[in-house]
Amino acid sequence: MDSLEYLEKLEIELFLQGIYDWYGYDYRDYAYQSIRRRIWHRVEAEKVSSILELLDKVLHDTSCVQRLMADFSINVTEMFRDPLFFGQFREKVVPLLRTYPSIRIWHAGCSTGEEIYSMAILLKEEGLYDKTKIYATDINADVLKIAKNGYYPLDNMKKYTSNYLQAGGKDAFSAYYTATNNGVRFNPCLTKNVVFAQHNLVTDRSFNEFHVIICRNVLIYFNKTLQAKVHQLFYESLGMFGILGLGDKETIAYTNQADHYKELSGKHKLYQKVN
């Protein structure tokens, strides 16, 4: 690492420490290159000349910190994303859930909520929704509002319908939403058993015991230290024989908890806690 790279790294560390000390937002263990790109994007957007100048603005301008938090939030999602994951969930997990008198599912890092509605539709079609409580959490309050409202662009429905059918959908996907002038609104009955709440995987602790935890394509933005912390949180939050679902580029392998799970679907990242 040359002197300029070292100086930039030091500035980024100071920046993230300042955000943590002043606002309590902890991004110190996010993947370095990802967070570096997002900081420089905000430097350019705010028309300041350096990372430390951005820090000064963030510390004195709460509207600036909100824009920064929006940059730091990863909100890439869609209905029935990676359809085969949901197909495997129907095949491998639903039979287990049928044996429970009630079901608790945690979607950690739920973003704008497309995955929540996907799960609700799946559970409704399998006759399990009425005995399920879904906890939908994210660090970003703005995306939680979008998730709770259930309004999405009409242009996305063609892609979402295709995903739904590939995931084993049993009905007409259009039966689950109503078209409006501005897009579509998903049926409010799909969120009657959903609790939307802010939760920070970096700093917050477990808040219940769950039968299923879904956290897909979130851990890839964390460094190994933070990944290990979150895996421990999930392990402690899962009941015995509970299910952990991860993203396609994530794995339980090489974690301290690896020996405590068995693969239900290694290819589609579904794991069951066994001890």
Automatic annotation (TrEMBL):
<dbReference type="InterPro" id="IPR000780">
    <property type="entry name" value="CheR_MeTrfase"/>
</dbReference>
<dbReference type="InterPro" id="IPR022641">
    <property type="entry name" value="CheR_N"/>
</dbReference>
<dbReference type="InterPro" id="IPR022642">
    <property type="entry name" value="CheR_C"/>
</dbReference>
<dbReference type="GO" id="GO:0008757">
    <property type="term" value="F:S-adenosylmethionine-dependent methyltransferase activity"/>
</dbReference>
<dbReference type="Pfam" id="PF03705">
    <property type="entry name" value="CheR_N"/>
</dbReference>
<dbReference type="GO" id="GO:0032259">
    <property type="term" value="P:methylation"/>
</dbReference>
<keyword id="KW-0808">Transferase</keyword>
<dbReference type="InterPro" id="IPR029063">
    <property type="entry name" value="SAM-dependent_MTases_sf"/>
</dbReference>
<dbReference type="Pfam" id="PF01739">
    <property type="entry name" value="CheR"/>
</dbReference>
<protein>
    <submittedName>
        <fullName>Protein-glutamate O-methyltransferase CheR</fullName>
    </submittedName>
</protein>
<keyword id="KW-0489">Methyltransferase</keyword>
<feature type="domain" description="CheR-type methyltransferase">
    <location>
        <begin position="1"/>
        <end position="275"/>
    </location>
</feature>
<dbReference type="InterPro" id="IPR050903">
    <property type="entry name" value="Bact_Chemotaxis_MeTrfase"/>
</dbReference>
